[in-house]
Every structure is written in C-alpha cells, then in structure tokens.
Amino acid sequence: MKYFIFTVLLAAMVYTDHDHWQIQTAENLQSYREVCVAEHGITPEQIAKYKSWNFPDDDKTHSYINCIFKKMGLFDDATGFNVDHLVLQLGQNQNKDEVKAKIEKCAEKNENNDSPAVWTYRGMKCFIGENLPLVQTSLKKSS
C-alpha cells in the first residue's frame, strides 16, 4: 500500500491538456507501475526497497520515477513538473493555494540542467520529504 501511495506522487503521463487530465487512481498507478517496471528493468529487490520508502540515488530509480510521473501526467521532460496537475492530485480536500505553495517549493525549474530523470527524482525526494501526508492521501479509488 505504501508503494501505491508513494508512486501516486511519482507521476507522469505524456502531457495532456488540463481540461482532459483526471486525478489518477490506485488502479491507474498499478498499471503505470507495471509498465515502468518492465520498461526500466526494475528488479524485485529494487521494488522491495521502494515499498519501504528507500529510493536509491541511481539511474534505474531515476528513470523509473520519471516514467511514473510522466504516465500520471505530472511531469514533462521538456517543461518539468505540471504544478496544476500536482495540485489537483495532491490537494484533494485541501486548501489549493496552500498545496500549490508546498508543491512549488519542490517543482523547481532545473537550473542545473540535469537529465529529466534526475530532475524528476530530485523533485520526488523533496515532495516526500516535505509533503508526505499529502502524498499519502492523494490517491482516490475508482468507483
């Protein structure tokens, strides 16, 4: 369950118009996780680490997190974090302005010109370090 909750934050699907984007569910996340595990050769040992909130600073983890964020529509390799989508995903039943301020602290503009995967990883680490309760409550069940 922690893995599902965490990875909802690790979101990203190919950029779509704000009007067409929807809050992602546990079922969406499971589907994206399976695709990203296969695409990036994530091992059962790595999955076990992720489930215990241990996200090593390595290339495979960076790529996996980037994949999840993109599949969920929360990150684009060219433009970075989609703050509006993150606010909708993480700010359910919360004050949107307060949530946006928290997200903007972590959704930086990649002034170091790191790869998109490193950029996503860095933002994710900030999000879970600063906003874990938002992450934990952000995943809605589909009806």
From TrEMBL:
UniProt signal peptide: 1-16
Gene Ontology MF terms in the entry: odorant binding
Highest taxon, organism lineage: Eukaryota
InterPro entries cross-referenced by the UniProt entry: PBP/GOBP (IPR006170), PBP_GOBP_sf (IPR036728)
Places the protein is found: Secreted
Pfam families per UniProt: PBP_GOBP
Record keywords, A-Z: Disulfide bond, Secreted, Signal
Keyword Signal: yes
Gene Ontology CC annotations of this record: extracellular space
One GO-annotated biological process of the protein: sensory perception of smell
Record-stated family: Belongs to the PBP/GOBP family.
PANTHER family: GENERAL ODORANT-BINDING PROTEIN 99A-RELATED, ODORANT BINDING PROTEIN-RELATED
UniProt-recorded name of the protein: General odorant-binding protein 99a
Name of the coding gene: Obp99a_1
